[in-house]
């Protein structure tokens, strides 16, 4: 490994954070504590997820609007094609714009019948994410309303995959439709990312492919999500969390260390941007950033 100090001198890693919109007051407090504690890390942007089936439309909007108006952070709002007409989806985008949001994470989303069920286009809705990206790009450029667009990508095949050839052509089509960057599904082995990066570059995908780093200390929850979205959970990870079901503190420490080690290995291979799935937990994202050598802006100035 390059030492952290050497790497820092070369380039400050760039980070972004994903949050989810809170469901109740307690979760709201936790989210805002997380936002405030991560703000000094000066992320490129922070993104807010859009619940399955569009279930968090208002809450996602309210969260990004508050981030835009009350913090120095640049919000990105997730938006899916699920269970809504094209007009509804574009109205949500327009509402984001009015709230000061200029960056959208455009997704097809999962079937309303749940993750793993076959994708169904909503009546009057977008057929796929390419159509959504094209519509976002065409959204009132006459008024200078041009969104930055990020999209998802899958270094390990998505459950809906019909093979690499289709997947890579599909990702290239997202780029051609106007996507600015792709953010990966989470993964735990650096080679999974690097092999995917090679495949993507060979397929003509030139946009940044930012690794999504999972900070989920609940290992049983992690295994469930990984099973649903096609991410592999290596044996060594099972061993690390073994016997810790009732020890949340130790799981937190392990989670931050695993994430930091993965980032270090990715950085050794030239990666300079990381997107963290924070689960609205400030301590894990903060300690991972510190382990990466990233300091809050005030500490750096001092
Ligand atoms: P796509 O990239 O369009 O498709 C997913 C996969 O299916 C690709 O591998 C693609 O090649 C393949 N595929 C698509 N269409 C076809 C076809 N016609 N034939 C064959 N193969 C096909 N979900 C939410 O509900 N809310 C969120 O906020 C959210 N945020 C996310 C953020 C990130 C960074 C990531 C990685 C995922 C997120 N998801 C979210 C999950 C996402 O909605 C699901 O993974 C969904 O199933 C796919 O959406 P997508 O935009 O990636 O789809």
Automatic annotation (TrEMBL):
Molecular function as annotated in GO: FAD binding; methylenetetrahydrofolate reductase (NADH) activity
Any GO BP annotation: methionine biosynthetic process
EC number: 1.5.1.54
Entries under Pfam families matching the protein: MTHFR
Pathway assigned in UniProt: One-carbon metabolism; tetrahydrofolate interconversion; Amino-acid biosynthesis; L-methionine biosynthesis via de novo pathway
Catalytic activity field: (6S)-5-methyl-5,6,7,8-tetrahydrofolate + NAD(+) = (6R)-5,10-methylene-5,6,7,8-tetrahydrofolate + NADH + H(+)
Transmembrane segments: none
One GO CC term, this protein: cytosol
Keyword ATP-binding carried by entry: no
CDD domains for the chain: MTHFR
NCBIfam families: fadh2
UniProt name for this protein: Methylenetetrahydrofolate reductase
Record organism: Henriciella algicola
